[in-house]
């Protein structure tokens, strides 16, 4: 007991120095770190971040153990890596700045209600698998947080409601819009016949053609989701974050698309939170 009282007094004294703005400061920093992690997860950059964290931990351990030569080498390496970060993370930094400029860094975007989202997903799903059955090649780009105005400018602007019949008409073979990509923003098709950047990844299989490589290339540069219908096999694929998932079916495609359009309803019921808290204390 004599030992506990000084510890309690120190703890209370520490709490007394914490003001409301300190809590706000910590909360803002936590949100920023979370959003940065959310932006980097499931991308190739996250492995580099993990490597940097491991390197910094090893550097601190070497410093504590007074391993001077190793500590000096690691410190110089970390310094060089931080200089190289803007080059290594160029796509991610560009994406973050674009979202910040659009006011979307904190996830503020305009989505559809549940009924509209389900209707839109059904229309896209119907068009995609009708084209797959007929082996009509297609590229559908679903815009998320990062704007695609540069890509839209390479094609023909349309600005029409998305319907399955209209999407199929866009990709009719031997027409000017067939070989390009169609851009979907919300529930509207904003452009077609757009050119996408090709990926530089040389590890991709030879069975992936130009459509697949351009879809992966765009997904490496932004957060868009790209649907590919193969003209040779009729296989439906999705490219996102530099990766491609092939052999999609009706259920998997709808499950992947629905969160892109449906609004997220988040509500804080403080009465329920307090009730659950008290219940846990009683247990």
Order of strands, widest sheet: 2-4-3-1-5-6-7
Question: What structural category arises from helix and sheet content?
Answer: alpha+beta
Give the overall form.
Answer: elongated
Instruction: Count every beta strand, where a strand is a DSSP E run of 2 or more residues.
Output: 7
Number of domains: 2
Considering the protein shown, what is the CATH homologous superfamily of the largest domain? DNA integrity scanning protein, DisA, N-terminal domain
Contiguous helical run count: 11
| CATH class designation of the largest domain | Alpha Beta
Keywords for this structure?
disordered C terminus, 2 domains, alpha+beta, elongated, YojJ-like (1, 283 residues, single chain, 11 helices
What this model shows, in words?
The protein is an alpha+beta fold. It folds into two domains: 4-101, no CATH class; 114-261, YojJ-like (1 (3-Layer(aba) Sandwich), CATH 3.40.1700.10. Helices cover 55% and strands 13% of the residues. The chain has helices at residues 4-16, 20-40, 45-64, 68-88, 90-101, 114-133, 149-152, 164-170, 210-221, 250-261, 270-282, and strands at residues 138-142, 156-161, 181-185, 188-194, 225-229, 236-240, 243-245. A seven-stranded mixed sheet has the order 2-4-3-1-5-6-7, sandwiched between helices. β3 (181-185) and β4 (188-194) form a beta hairpin. The longest helix has 21 residues, at 20-40. It is elongated, with a radius of gyration of 25 Å. The relative contact order is 0.10. The model is unreliable at 264-274 and 277-281 (pLDDT under 50).
């Amino acid at each position: 007991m004599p030992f506990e009282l000084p510890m309690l007094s120190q703890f209370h004294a520490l709490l007394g120095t914490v003001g409301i703005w300190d809590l706000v400061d910590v909360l803002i920093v936590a949100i920023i770190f979370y959003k940065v992690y959310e932006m980097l997860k499931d991308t190739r950059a996250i492995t580099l971040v993990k490597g940097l964290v491991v390197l910094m931990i090893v550097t601190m351990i070497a410093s504590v153990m007074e391993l001077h030569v190793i500590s000096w080498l690691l410190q110089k390496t970390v310094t060089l890596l931080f200089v190289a970060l803007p080059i290594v993370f160029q796509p991610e930094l560009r994406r973050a700045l674009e979202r910040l400029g659009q006011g979307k860094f904190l996830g503020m975007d305009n989505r559809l209600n549940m009924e509209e989202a389900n209707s839109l997903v059904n229309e896209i799903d119907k068009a995609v698998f009708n084209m797959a059955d007929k082996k009509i090649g297609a590229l559908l780009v679903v815009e998320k947080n990062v704007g695609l105005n540069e890509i839209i400018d390479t094609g023909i602007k349309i600005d029409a409601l998305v319907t399955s019949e209209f999407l199929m008409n866009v990709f009719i073979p031997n027409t000017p819009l067939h070989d390009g990509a169609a851009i979907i923003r919300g529930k509207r098709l904003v452009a077609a016949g757009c050119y996408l950047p090709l990926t530089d990844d040389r590890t991709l299989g030879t069975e992936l053609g130009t459509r697949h490589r351009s879809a992966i290339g765009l997904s490496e540069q932004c957060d868009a989701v790209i649907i590919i219908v193969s003209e040779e096999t009729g296989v439906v694929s999705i490219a996102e974050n530099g990766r491609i998932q092939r052999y999609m079916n009706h259920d998997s495609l709808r499950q992947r698309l629905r969160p892109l359009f449906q609004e997220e309803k988040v509500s804080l019921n403080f009465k329920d939170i307090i009730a659950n808290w008290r219940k846990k204390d009683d247990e």
